[in-house]
Amino acid sequence: MTLPDRSSLSRREYVRLAVAAGGTAALSACLGGEDDTSSVDVPAGTDDSDSLPTRQHAWNDALTADEHGNVQPPAHHVLVALSLQDDVIEDGRVDETAREATETALRSLERAYEWSNEGLVFTLGYTPAYFERFDESLPDSVDLPDPTALTTQEAPEFDEFDAVLHLASDVPEVVLEAEEGLFGEVSELNGVNLETDLTSVFDRLEDRRRTGFVGDGLPAEHTDVSGVPEAVPDDAPFLMGFRSGFRESQATEDRATLESGPFAGGATQHIESMDINLLQWFDQENHFQRVSKLFSREHAVEDLTGEVGEELTASSGLSLERIDATDADAREHNVVGHSQKAARAREDGEPLLLRRDFNTVDGDRPGLHFLSLQREIDEFVRVREAMTGADLDVPMANNGIRHYIFVNRRGNYLVPPRSLRALPPAAPEP
Ligand code: HEM
Known about the structure:
By secondary structure, the protein is of the alpha+beta class. It has a domain at 276-410. 23% of the residues lie in helices and 17% in strands. The protein is built from twelve helices and 15 strands. It has helices spanning 11-21, 24-31, 96-112, 128-131, 172-183, 278-283, 287-294, 297-301, 320-324, 326-333, 338-342, 377-388; strands spanning 76-84, 89-90, 93-94, 121-126, 157-158, 163-169, 188-189, 192-193, 202-204, 210-213, 267-276, 354-355, 358-360, 367-374, 405-415. Strand 13 (358-360) and strand 14 (367-374) form a beta hairpin. It is globular, with a radius of gyration of 21 Å. The protein starts with 10 loop residues before the first helix and ends in a 15-residue tail after the last strand. Residues 238, 240, 242, 244-246, 249, 272, 276, 294, 316, 318, 338-339, 342-343, 346, 351, 353, 368, 370, 383-384, 387, 401, 405 line the site of protoporphyrin IX containing FE. Protoporphyrin IX containing FE (HEM) binds at residues 238, 240, 242, 244-246, 249, 272, 276, 294, 316, 318, 338-339, 342-343, 346, 351, 353, 368, 370, 383-384, 387, 401, 405.
């Protein structure tokens, strides 16, 4: 992707396009922009690696929260797809120099940037294909099957490379600089010298790189992309026009964490990428229908959400009765809500998935990279089945948002605890 002519674009839009394009040229274009700064300048990280969480996915305490305690995800995201170089694992053994280089490079990120929205949070997750390189199998305590199609309507491609690095920050230049530090020609990150990079361990798969954004007002900035209508509300944090990620609809980090075995402290991760038919969503549907299909019919009748979900506080307003009414809503009102039916998979009232999804206009098409953390991939599959709602007696067009989303890629990952994040063996010593 080449960078567009900046004179016709706002700074925010230009920087977003630069994140999507990636690369050293994109980074310098951003840094040499309006402010004419020559490097990123954000809060520094720490040399004391023991002060950082032992779980890679422990982001929540470090991120900001709104007045209702809902975690505010970083605004800008990059998923860097990685393929291991040939000699890094030979005869089922990891080359120690490569492992040390990986750990040192990741520590450099932590030294450079504060673990926060303004700095950088990240995880490095590994696919089943990576673990198949070893003679031993993963322990029984880890549920990490190969990804498969999960609905009869989809024929997705699968993430069959080795690993994915998820970089997230409120500052777009930070995600770009961190990626370029690890794989490009940048040797200083936020003023801190990079000791080593990942170029001797992994190759970046440019055509599998994914990017995106989440946050109030960001989706509406993309109405220049074909397929993103002017009707996207100005304040909406997601392209479909509503808030998401309410505290009570999210698994806690504890609930998503593996509790036993050598990978205790890790989590599994699923990434489902999809296109969204926003033109139909906004043109053929009105606000009442959109609320019915995303939340529940009762949310629409009682006007519980407001325009973009601003009336909801720490919860998406899904009482037990509303969740239990899913079947009856299908039969009696011919419509069910996406969150209403997904919530049927809660266990003992607790959501199983910690969702960290973000929108995208990768490939100049609107979409969502749905990323969730959970203890077992099977939990994701069960929630996805509840969301699909094949059991419900309702037409496809009114079965939540299924009619508007088109899944094109799936991947399963293990996000090991921080102590095992650098090229973990399949069967670590206890
Ligand atoms: C374009 C795609 C999607 C959009 C716009 C979307 C939007 C939403 C919204 C607005 C909510 C309610 C607010 C909240 O509770 O945070 C929600 C809840 C939820 N969504 Fe999605 N979602 C999408 C895709 C998915 C996918 C692929 C899954 C996979 C299983 C999923 C699973 C869930 C779950 C588990 C909940 C919470 C249910 C509960 O309260 O227990 N969503 N989503």
